[in-house]
Amino acid sequence: MARYFGTNGVRGTFDKVNPELALSLAKAIGTYFKKGRIIVARDGRLTGETLRDAVVAGLMAVGCDVIDLGVAPSPVAEFLIKKEKAAGAVIITASHNPPEYNGIKVVDGKGVSVSRERGGEIEKLMGETANAEWNRVGGFCKCGEFIKEYLDAVKRIVEPGKIRKRKPRLVLDCGNGTASIIAPVLFRELGCEVVLLNEEIDGRFPGRPSEPTKENIKELLKRVPAEKADVGIAWDGDCDRVVLVDEKGEYVIGDRVFALCALLKLREKKGDIVTTVATSRAIEDVAKKYGVKVRYTQIGAPYLSEEMAKGKAAIGGEEVGGIILPEISLAKDGFSSIAKIVEALSEKKLSGWLREIPAYANVKEKIPADEKHKKEIVGEMEKYAKENKLEFIDIDGVRINLDEGWVIVRASGTEDYVRIFAEAKTEEKAKQILEKYKKAALG
Asked: Model confidence at 414, in pLDDT bands (50, 70, 90)?
């Protein structure tokens, strides 16, 4: 049986993720959800509309009622599941991937993303689904009020008065993605001064690549100090991950954004922190400060949301800047999380807040590998850890915890790579750790 689901849904270039696959998947998804109301949304990619049409046709063909949002950020679509009492959501997006990619992300009625494992159940249904009778096909409607509903929910978790009094100046790099639909409206309504970059939705991503890495947001790094802004904010194409630039023009990597959000959240309400095995040790430092537990998961939004759904967690997130605030939903949300940080600017500057987060250096590398070699490389790493009696976590790949830092070797769930991340107090030490354990993993 062919496998399509990766770490978070189905993803690939248009020759693979095409209308024929989308139609077959959608019929299987509708059958898996046992019909019901399904929210459908897409990002601004050029292939999005044709895939959306195929998804809608497949869902309706097996008797699902479709609530179509059109172009909308992923976290907004996921927020609406509970309000609309939907059986789930299908979002056509390739998130941070290059423009030639697209994808189909599936979320259940509890707001939990469908993992690779659960996706296997959907794959088994492909080609086995029956169309509904002609008079029992699903209905279709467009949802026009979703922006206001979402904005109102975010405003309820901050104190708009504090923000309006401070009137922070923000540079918003929408990255030609769906952030343009929400971010300018949200932060203006909260009383911020807003400067926009790459605000036109364009699936070619002409302003910059969709992934908000330091190399990709060079314009934002310059504009923040030039505009005398308090913060710069950059999203990926569907807004489930976010990074910051402080008032001095310094890049703030995603896991430090997450650590700061956790610190701010735990000041208000204590609870566990849910994160993946690839997240900085800074999150453990924040947890220790407030006397709470860190619960580790596999890498990927589905595993985070599954763990968050168990309750007792104040916040969840991962190293790429995906942050979950359960008051909003179980989705990684690049708006509600940043609204909390903007609120905190009424107390002190972003650089001041970041001084409360211990600094670590991260280095990353990826090794091309097919499925067979992925298993071999990860297996070598586990063997090395056992032979040398090292402390390790094998929830997802192998993370080895060291006195001076940590290193993880894991197989990518979406690409033909093995990823190696290392962290230490200095970049030089992190590179040394990475090189040492890369050699061990490659035998």
From this structure: low
Helices 282-290 and 254-268 cross at an angle (nearest 10°) of 10
Phi-psi group of 36: left, alpha or beta (phi > 0 → left; psi -120 to 50 → alpha; rest → beta) = left
pTM (two decimals): 0.93
Q: In what order do the strands lie in the sheet with 313-317?
A: 294-297, 272-276, 313-317, 323-324
Q: Which of 182, 8, 3 is nearest to 80 (CA)?
A: 182
Segments in 103-145 forming alpha helices (H): 116-125
**Residue 203 tokens, joined:** 């699936």
Amino acid at 337: S
Cross-strand bridge partners of residue 107:
89, 113
CB atoms within 10 A of CB 431: 15
Q: Give the integer Cα–Cα distance in Å for 412 and 366.
A: 9
* Closest to 406 (Cα-Cα) out of 361, 351, 343: 361
DSSP class per residue in 81-95: HHHTT-SEEEEE--T
Task: Give residues with Cβ within 8 angstroms of 249, minimum separation 6.
Answer: 221, 222, 224, 225
Cα 238 from Cα 67, distance rounded (Å): 19
Q: Which of 74, 95, 115, 210 is catalytic?
A: 95
Q: pLDDT digits over 371-388, tens only?
A: 899 999 999 999 999 999
- Residues in the chain, how many? 443
Six token digits for residue 206:
């002409």
Given pLDDT bands bounded at 50, 70 and 90, which one contains residue 415? confident
List CB contacts of 229: < 8 A, sequence separation 6 or more.
Answer: 169, 170, 171, 195, 223, 247
Tokens of 224: 């923040």
As a whole number, the mean pLDDT across the chain is: 96
- Confirm whether 351 is a catalytic residue: no
Burial 354-382 (b: 16+ CB within 10 A, else e): beebbebbbbeeebebeeeebebbbebbb
Q: Which of 262, 268, 24, 194 is nearest to 126 (CA)?
A: 24
CA-nearest of 237, 266, 410, 241 to 321 is: 241
Distances (CA, A) of 343 to 28, 75, 192, 230, 396: 43, 20, 10, 12, 35
